[in-house]
Specification:
The chain contains 5 helices and 16 strands. By secondary structure, it is an alpha+beta fold. Strand 4 and strand 5 (131-137) form a beta hairpin.
């Protein structure tokens, strides 16, 4: 399109000259300078070096074949929000961006839990809850109750915020738990002679926590992750090896009656919580 606008006596459109365009040669039109001088004798011709929008001195309007300077633009500081309002809006936008970033990014502990589940190939443990992964078993055997069993088997076990309780179960094997990371974890141990223990698996030795908890065979136990803890990863060594016929999961009213009052924390309601979904109705 031809850069040079037509001179419209009744027009009011503003236009600007471009330094490069003003040097273009077009045989169809006279010199722009001569046209301006004819339409506005004695006027000074301005040749800006940039495109619109331009300062006031670079803008002209064609009206009745004369050049008229346009009024200067309104002060931008007087339009829109005041400075305090702009600062407030900026703070709100920054806060919203930070909130969105924090909401989108999962907590570091949750990322670590997913990593442990993937790397150690942990699976949800049915009935007892928590996550379990096999490590291995002993190369040696022993005769136990007339049957040959591996001397030991080892597993990973993990409690998390979404699965914070290892529900009550009885094991024939000795069960030694070694804390790898995370915790602490409460161990509620119920001995066959009727006495009970509460031991805390953790790293704060000064507070009475222990990094290793050994539970004798023939005991009931339940585990509970501390409030505020994200997870606890343990290595468990069972001696002799674990076999499905040497574990019993859950209990019923008679068991609660037997251990109620054995410790201040051993209330019927709390013992029922430790049994969880594995309640056994007695016939």
């Amino acid at each position: 399109a031809d850069f040079w606008p037509r001179l419209d006596p009744g027009g009011s459109d503003a236009f600007c000259f471009n330094k490069f365009e003003c040097t273009r040669k077009d045989p169809r039109q006279r010199s722009r300078d001569s046209v301006l001088q004819e339409t506005n004798p004695g006027s000074e011709i301005t040749r800006p070096s940039s495109l619109c929008p331009l300062p006031q001195q670079h803008r002209v309007s064609i009206r009745s074949r004369s050049l008229v300077a346009l009024p200067p633009p309104a002060d931008r500081s007087s339009i829109g929000y005041s400075s305090p309002m702009r600062r407030l809006l900026t703070l709100i936008l920054v806060w919203a961006a930070c909130f969105a970033a924090n909401s989108a990014a999962p907590p570091a502990a949750d990322v670590r839990v997913r990593e442990l589940i993937r790397v150690l190939n942990l699976k949800v443990l049915p009935k007892e809850s928590g996550y379990l992964g096999l490590i291995g078993e002993s190369a040696q055997n022993a005769s136990i109750d007339g049957r040959s069993l591996r001397i030991q088997s080892q597993v990973y076990y993990m409690l998390t915020r979404d699965r914070p309780i290892n529900f009550l179960h009885w094991l024939a094997s000795d069960d030694t738990h070694i804390l790898i990371e995370g915790g602490p974890v409460d161990y509620f141990i119920f001995h066959p002679d009727g006495h009970v223990e509460k031991v805390v698996l953790g790293r704060d030795l000064g507070a009475g926590q222990r990094p290793v908890v050994a539970v004798p065979g023939g005991c009931w136990k339940a585990l509970r992750l501390h409030d505020g803890a994200s997870y606890a990863l343990m290595a468990n060594a069972l001696s002799p090896e674990f076999t499905p016929d040497r574990v019993r999961i859950g209990e019923g009213p008679a068991w609660i009656k037997r251990f109620t009052g054995a410790a201040p924390w051993a209330t019927p309601q709390f013992l029922r919580t430790l049994i969880g979904p594995n309640w056994i109705t007695e016939k």
